Amino acid sequence: MVHGKYEKKPVHYAGHEYELNNKFGEEWWYLSGTGVNEDLQGANALQLAHIFKKKIRLFYNPTSGVLFDFVKSMSGLITYKSTAPKRLALALLMRYNDNRDSKTVLIGHSYGSIVIVNAVKYLIKKGYIDCLRNIEIYTFGCPCIEISSTIDPVTFHRVPFYEHYVHIGDFVARVGAYRLLNGHHWVVGKVFTADKQGHLLGEHYLPSFVHGEFQWEGGDHHSRLLSYLPKDISREQLLLDLSLPSPSSPLPFEITGLPSELIDPTAATTTTTTTTITTICSTPIMPSTTDISTTAGVAAV
Question: Mean of the pLDDT values across residues 196-215?
Answer without folding.
Answer: 93
